[in-house]
Amino acid sequence: MGWYYIAIAMGEVIQPYDSTVDTLKHIKRVSQLLNEAASELLRRANVHDDSKLHSPEKELFDKFTPLLLRMKGDTDVDNLLELSSP
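Request: output the structure for the sequence above.
Response:
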């Protein structure tokens, strides 16, 4: 015997819970939050590397990219660190 039938036997009339409305609200809220997150990711995708084209990052990329492309192992990393010291 379920709780609904026990409540009727005790003289109370309690309607069974229908989760449809709450579930639809939840689905709508999750969809809204995911769309906001997706929009933010798209916005960031369009601008995330812009700083690499301006000082101070551009100078660092110009200096270290050719060196990094020639690296072959740990010794080269140590040499690169020495080159980067002021």
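The first helix runs from residue 3 to 9.
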